[in-house]
Design brief:
Number of domains: 1
Helix content: 55-70%
CATH architecture: 3-Layer(aba) Sandwich
Distance between the termini: 10 Å
Strand order of the largest sheet: 2-3-1-4-5
CATH topology: Rossmann fold
Number of strands: 5
Radius of gyration: 16 Å
Shape: globular
Order of helices and strands: EHEHHHEHEHHHEH
């Protein structure tokens, strides 16, 4: 089963992905983690990624799709994948469909974590204080949220029309969100 964890920055996608990995054995493909690893590598690609992330922008589709393709190849035979932070654009969604179709599979469920903007800002501020991630400062977060609303939110009706979208209250406790996700997954089986 292939899942997309969908929602704005700080909605809890990474937290819930880790739980799904632990509880169900999925492979988590976090574009954020992949991009932060590229940044930390200091390579030419990493430097390009670093500049884009520091400004709150989105990395080009071909870079992100290449990273995803590489991970799908590296984990052949996995029971399923969790796409965390991907796709972020209509073009990326089409590319993901193509990558999965070439492997004889598809996206089976899109789990949208719904969180209001005030709660997102509170979460991002706390995470910035605790972890010091450059892309979590309030100004950059504002840019990230704007990009989400412009580029990523348009995927919601697309996945809804395909019957793949399940909405989860992302403002509940971590355990309650996990239970809601498990309930949504049980409906699919």
């Amino acid at each position: 089963m292939n899942l997309i964890l969908f929602g704005p920055p700080a909605a809890g996608k990474g937290t819930q992905a880790k739980r799904l990995v632990q509880d169900h054995g999925f492979i988590q493909l976090s574009t954020g983690d992949m991009l932060r690893a590229a940044r930390a590598s200091g390579s030419e690609l990493g430097q390009r990624v670093s500049k884009i992330l520091d400004e709150g922008g989105l990395v080009s589709d071909d870079i992100v799709i290449g990273l995803i393709d590489e991970q799908l190849t590296n984990h052949k035979g996995a029971p399923g994948f969790i796409f965390d932070g991907f796709p972020r654009t209509v073009g990326q969604a089409k590319a993901l469909d193509d990558l999965l179709e070439a492997r004889g599979t598809a996206v089976h469920c899109v789990l949208r974590l719904v969180v209001d903007e005030d709660q997102l800002l509170a979460r991002i501020s706390k995470r910035f204080e605790e972890q010091g991630r450059k892309d979590d400062n309030p100004e950059i977060f504002s840019t990230r949220l704007e990009k989400y609303n412009e580029d990523t939110a348009p995927l919601i009706p697309i996945y809804a029309e395909r019957g793949l979208l399940r909405e989860v209250d992302g403002m509940a406790s971590i355990d309650e969100v996990s239970a809601s996700i498990d309930g949504a997954l049980k409906e699919l089986v």
